Amino acid sequence: MKGIHSIFLACFIVSAFVCFLASAFDPSPLQDFCVPIDDPKNAVFVNGKFCKDPKLAVADDFFFSGLNKPGNTSNRVGSNVTTVNIDQIPGLNTLGISLVRIDYAPYGENPPHTHPRGTEILVVVQGTLYVGFVTSNPENRLITKILYPGDVFVFPIGLIHFQYNVGNTPAVAFAGLSSQNAGVITIANAVFGSNPPINPDVLTKAFKLDKNVVTHLQSIF
């Protein structure tokens, strides 16, 4: 009896832990879909959101047009991300998935960044990309690959990753993310462009840089 009790207790603890981990990600839908709506009239309350009555949902709640159009890469990093998440397709609410198109100028990059709420799976459709991610502390191992059209690469949730166009022609990739809104934190922008700025003494010590270099970086981000 004591052994059975121990097994039961262990199963309960594991189940509770799994439930805790699951709660850190997008909630599972409690019906076929949940198109969010601002006006609670003609709405039902599902997973913490007022949602349109499913009977009133229309095709446009699940539709977006425009991913065939190249993004403007005339910027400092030479890339453009066109996002298709819950803000563009309301019907994605609670479904735990979204999509992006990424355009790269010749030698442009999608700089080191992280998605706090989603894993990313990327496919190259044009050009050649050098991609990679860095594992967590203490190993901080860099895992990289050169991708060609038709190649697919996965960036695990929360890890810093990047893509760099190594060719002298434009490149295009599409990526799916395991969240209706995966979020993005661009490392350089967050560290050197925070509002208000991080105390330069902190960054000087953390990056082992001259303080003048730190203040210069903060001025350009």
From TrEMBL:
Leader sequence segment: 1-24
InterPro entries: Cupin_1 (IPR006045), Germin (IPR001929), Germin_Mn-BS (IPR019780), RmlC-like_jellyroll (IPR014710), RmlC_Cupin_sf (IPR011051)
Positions of transmembrane segments: none
Keyword terms: Apoplast, Disulfide bond, Glycoprotein, Manganese, Metal-binding, Secreted, Signal
SUPFAM superfamilies (UniProt xref): RmlC-like cupins
PROSITE patterns reported for this sequence: GERMIN
Ranges for domain Cupin type-1: 65-215
Subcellular location(s) per record: Secreted, Extracellular space, Apoplast
Coarse class of the protein's main subcellular location: secreted
The keyword Coiled coil is annotated on this UniProt entry: no
Family recorded in the similarity comment: Belongs to the germin family.
Name of the protein: Germin-like protein
Species, as recorded: Hibiscus sabdariffa
